[in-house]
What we know:
- The protein has 364 residues and is an alpha+beta fold.
- It has helices at residues 3-16, 30-37, 63-74, 111-128, 141-150, 155-167, 180-184, 186-192, 197-210, 221-234, 240-250, 256-270, 275-290, 338-341, 357-360; strands spanning 20-21, 27-29, 47-49, 55-58, 79-88, 97-106, 134-140, 215-216, 219-220, 253-254, 299-301, 314-320, 328-334, 350-356.
- It has 15 helices and 14 strands.
- The strands form three sheets. The protein has a nine-stranded mixed sheet with strand order 1-5-6-14-13-12-7-11-10. It has a three-stranded antiparallel sheet with strand order 2-4-3. A two-stranded antiparallel sheet has the order 8-9.
Amino acid sequence: MTETDAILALIALFEREGYAHVEPPVLQPADVFVELSGEDIRRRMFVTQDASGTELCLRPEYTIPVCLRHLGEHGAEPAGYCYGGPVFRMRPGEAGEFLQAGLESIGRADVSATDAEILGLALEGLEHIGLTAHRVRLGDMGLLNALIDALGIAPAAKRRVIRAIVSGQGLASLGEPEAQGQQEHAGLLAAIEGQAPQAAKAFVEDILSIAGIARVGGRSAGEIAERFLARAANRTGLPDAARAVLERYLSISGDPDQAADAVRLLAKDAGLDLSEALNTFEERTGFMAARGLDVAAFSFSATFARNLDYYTGFIFEVQDAGRSDGKPIVGGGRYDRLLEHLGAAAPIPAVGCSFWLDRIVGRP
Length: 364
């Protein structure tokens, strides 16, 4: 089966399940990806300009373009979409243009059932194109955020904690002293500490604009702002008691039922109320089992996290048991904040996943 054949087979499957086939334009506004994914994405995008000088990029992924289309056509009304085609991203050791397929469910209020449906369709899709030997890894940004909030950790420290988990460095990196550069800019760092990322970035960009600074050392004002935001986060420490609870949480792994039991015990021992996040976690597991998914074969890992601000809950990835590089062949999750970032008046529930077809069809 070729990658094109795989796309056609997946789209046919998803359309039968009620997901409308859409194909957003290849050329997309670059700023929206940078604003939502951080300056790091700029180094991986293929960027150009239109005749008026507006910065555009070749579509690096489908989720944001699909969400923009949904907002323009349906607003907060529920709808489901599937897609398949080329995306463009600089990837070390892999082609910059590659084919992706996937599906997005936007606006459904039955959150746990929809999460289970997306995972179920992802696994059914893999079987549909001939891949049955796989491993499923689960995470939960909602559970992690609920724990951090229950511990009373400040917003700047919260961002740093999540960044440390996502990077794989763990909490050991949080005790580093202030660097000399942080001391030199203490006033500015104090001003943005605790602000929401977008507000802090805009504040720093305004300061640079007032000072007449456009670029420093090849970095744009936006990139400089990102560096200041990271430095502000690094100023905030983590109390020993909170660190101990987080370390215990990050050691939790196992199937979803085992993980839920371990988190519930942790919450009880630490005197924290995580009932809402845990109830959602267990409800989702129940819907997975009701769909006939082998929940006991899934692996939850508390260290599995994503650093994009708009991920709010369930996240997952599927790995090919025949690959040795550990790269996911399907990845997805819940992103209830994304559409609000894109202009919706309020958060809109949404979840989806994407297939890396070059890793599936062209697997070693």
